[in-house]
Design goal:
The complex is a heterodimer. Chain A is built from six helices and ten strands, in the order E-E-E-H-E-E-H-E-H-H-H-E-H-E-E-E. Chain A is an alpha/beta fold. Chain A has a single domain, classed as P-loop containing nucleotide triphosphate hydrolases (Rossmann fold, 3-Layer(aba) Sandwich). Chain A has a six-stranded mixed β-sheet with strand order 6-7-8-3-9-10. In chain A, helix 6 (180-197) links the parallel strand 7 (168-172) and strand 8. Chain B has two domains: 4-43 and 278-399, no CATH class; 60-192 and 234-258, no CATH class. Chain B has 13 helices and twelve strands. Chain B has helices at 4-11, 13-51, 76-81, 183-191, 195-207, 219-227, 246-257, 264-275, 277-307, 310-318, 323-356, 365-392, 396-399, and strands at residues 55-58, 72-73, 86-100, 105-113, 129-130, 139-143, 153-156, 159-167, 178-182, 232-233, 235-240, 260-263. In chain B, strands 1, 3, 4, 5, 6, 7, 8, 9, 11 and 12 form a ten-stranded mixed β-sheet that branches. The mean pLDDT of chain B is 90. Classes of the chains: A alpha/beta, B alpha+beta. The interface between A and B is medium-sized, with 32 and 26 residues.
């Protein structure tokens, strides 16, 4: 389920009206190809979180166009009726903190998404276990989230973002709570998974340790994005 | 699809069990209150059943002998006995009082029964120990709930009585245990004055020129004698002959004797509808208050539990969980809490509370079923506040910013 990544053209987001109107996003143009991991960086208040919420179909942009895979999902208005289903089936989320559900074990934390989409329980759990193998947390499949280390929790959160094979994953500062080694390990995993599942991954970050690993970076300043070539440092 | 509510309960089972136990004690009190009401109604019916009467003949225009004072002459029963359709008629007196015993006293309804034997209306229909009253004076049969023992001596007014037999479930409509004594003793106990009062009454009578006329020998003695006996009873209990309609017999007594007569159903209506009506209303109000308190507690607990999961709910919404799944999570937890509470409540009401209540607590299966349905409805309604809060959670909270 690869599609054609995500393409954003002329995206705007305005809060308020008239004299009090504030444009959090003035002109956002982005394209992330399937299998690619790009960085989105910018100072506080630049519009990163607003952009992430727009891309995640959590808030509605004011204008612009978003194409996810082959489908136009926003064109000066939502083109999709069920935004929850869109988020569940076509967008993966990885947060700064893992935010695993504390009362579900690791497998069910990940398997919950396909279950919500109507995939049978056994098949959902099978999918989760396949991802655990790739993410090297297979041995913690039966554990509760509180029994995992920070790095393990973040890998489980990545598995949750990937489990429905979405064409795009939005990662909001996924390495913030981790040390350099673990942070680079997470970026390595994201790159590996992006290639394996042909998923477009946008990583919002401030983390100086991982910025050099991106081949392409989008800077956002005062609600406007600027593309720049990254160093693309070898992660191996 | 996995049960999110079930997993959450299993994950924090201690919190749920302890909260459920607290709620359960409250539900136990609620069930006990309902049981007390049922017990009062049952006590009233038992009182009527055990009297062995089909009709109660009482003072005209009164609701006696249980709901209002009633006083009729103690020879009326003879005339009633001879009326068509009457199988047996017997005098009865009832007096609720503190019965003194060696160690303290006990509140009891003292019934004065006519001489004869078991089978006569008013007599205890069965004993669990000892024997029935065989002497004309100073013997008593007591309900086992009085705590009295066979051979124990009790004091009613100035006279001492020996308990010779024990019976069971012979209680007044208030739940006070009954003590049966001979009718003459009971009549005396009802009207007996202390010595000083008797002396004072005699002196006042003697000083009254209307009662102490010169030249009318014997008048004063006759008046004093009439003042020192009690020719009244509270009611006549009537057993109707087979094949006769109690209402027809009652109507006949009403017409010829100018007394008020109640049938079994009318007397039950007086006891349940009038005598214990205020108590029933009080219990109903307690039930309403306890239900409201239970609702508030469940609502508060579920709201607190939900507020503790706001971040998880935001994440669930962000990853596409439907509202009905989140509603199900909260409502199922609320119902589970109610079910735990109900089980604890039912057990505590049956095994802990009912045996120690001084009143008879009758826990009917139907009341438990109604209680269970009420608990579920309360839990569903109580979860609405938490559900509203959960549905207002913005999935963007999971992203932050």
């Amino acid at each position: 389920m690869s599609g054609k990544g995500i393409q954003i053209t002329g995206l705007k987001k305005r809060y308020g009206r008239g004299d009090t109107a504030v444009y959090a996003l003035k002109k956002v143009d982005m394209y992330v190809a399937p299998g690619e991991v790009v960085g989105l960086i910018g100072p506080s208040g630049s519009g990163k979180t607003t952009l992430l919420k727009c891309l995640g179909a959590v808030i509605e942009p004011t204008a612009g166009r978003m194409i996810l895979g082959d489908d136009v999902i926003y064109d000066d208005g939502w083109k999709v009726k069920d935004l929850r289903a869109l988020r569940r089936d076509r967008i993966g989320f990885v947060f700064q903190a893992p935010y695993l559900i504390p009362f579900l074990d690791v497998t069910d934390n990940v398997a919950l998404l396909p279950m919500l989409a109507g995939v049978p329980n056994s098949q959902s759990r099978k999918r989760a276990r396949e991802l655990f193998k790739a993410l090297d947390v297979e041995h913690r499949a039966e554990a509760m989230p509180s029994q995992l280390s920070g790095g393990e929790q973040q890998r489980v959160a990545i598995a949750r973002g990937l489990v429905n094979h979405p064409p795009v994953i939005l990662a909001d500062e996924p390495t913030a709570p981790l040390d350099s080694q673990r942070a680079l390990a997470v970026i390595r995993i994201l790159n590996h998974m992006a290639r394996k599942f042909e998923t477009a991954i946008i990583v919002v970050t401030h983390d100086e340790k991982i910025i050099p690993t991106f081949k392409r970076i989008y800077h956002i300043r005062d609600g406007v994005t600027y593309e720049e070539a990254g160093q693309g440092r070898d992660l191996e | 699809m996995i049960s999110l509510a079930g997993r959450d309960i299993l994950h924090s089972w201690g919190k749920f069990i302890f909260t459920g136990m607290g709620l359960g004690l409250l539900i136990g009190i609620t069930l006990s209150m309902a049981g007390i009401y049922r017990g009062m109604v049952d006590d009233a019916k038992v009182l009527l059943d055990n009297s062995g009467a089909d009709l109660w003949v009482v003072q005209e225009n009164t609701l006696g002998p249980y709901a209002e004072p009633s006083s009729i002459y103690d020879d009326i029963w003879r005339g009633i006995s001879g009326m068509p359709g009457v199988a047996q008629a017997a005098n009865i007196t009832y007096l609720t009082m503190q019965v003194r015993r060696e160690s303290g006293d006990v509140r009891a309804m003292v019934a004065g029964i006519t001489p004869g034997g078991p089978g006569i209306p008013g007599w205890p229909p069965f004993l669990v120990a000892g024997r029935q009253i065989t002497r004309s004076h100073y013997e008593a049969v007591a309900d086992i709930a009085s705590g009295l023992k066979i051979g124990e001596r009790i004091k009613l007014r100035r006279n001492h009585y020996t308990v010779v037999g024990m019976t069971r479930r012979m209680v007044s409509s208030n739940g006070d245990p009954m003590i049966f004594i001979p009718l003459k003793d009971a009549q005396e106990a009802q009207f007996l004055k202390d010595n000083d009062a008797i002396w004072a009454q005699r002196r006042r009578t003697a000083e009254n020129p209307a009662f102490n006329r010169p030249g009318v020998p014997g008048l004063l003695d006759a008046i004093i004698a009439s003042q020192s006996i009690n020719p009244y009873v509270n009611a006549v209990l009537v057993r109707v002959e087979k094949g006769h309609d109690p209402e027809d017999v009652a109507e006949s007594i009403r017409r010829w004797k100018r007394l008020t007569v109640y049938t079994r159903s009318q007397m039950e209506e007086i006891l349940v509808g009038k005598l214990i009506a205020t108590a029933a209303k009080q219990i109903f109000m307690f039930l309403v208050i306890l239900s409201l308190v239970s609702s508030a507690i469940v609502a508060f607990i579920i709201y607190t539990l939900t507020m503790g999961k706001i971040r998880e709910i935001a994440v669930l919404k962000l990853i596409g969980t439907k509202n009905r799944t989140i509603i199900g999570l909260i409502m199922q937890q609320s119902i589970a809490l109610g079910l735990i509470g109900f089980v604890v409540g039912k057990i505590s009401a049956t095994l802990l509370m009912a045996p120690i209540f001084p009143k008879y607590v009758l826990l009917e299966p139907l009341d438990s079923a109604i209680g269970l349905v009420a608990v579920i409805i309360i839990c569903v309604l109580s979860s609405i506040v938490a559900i509203r809060a959960a549905l207002k959670v913005d999935p963007a909270e999971a992203i932050g910013g």
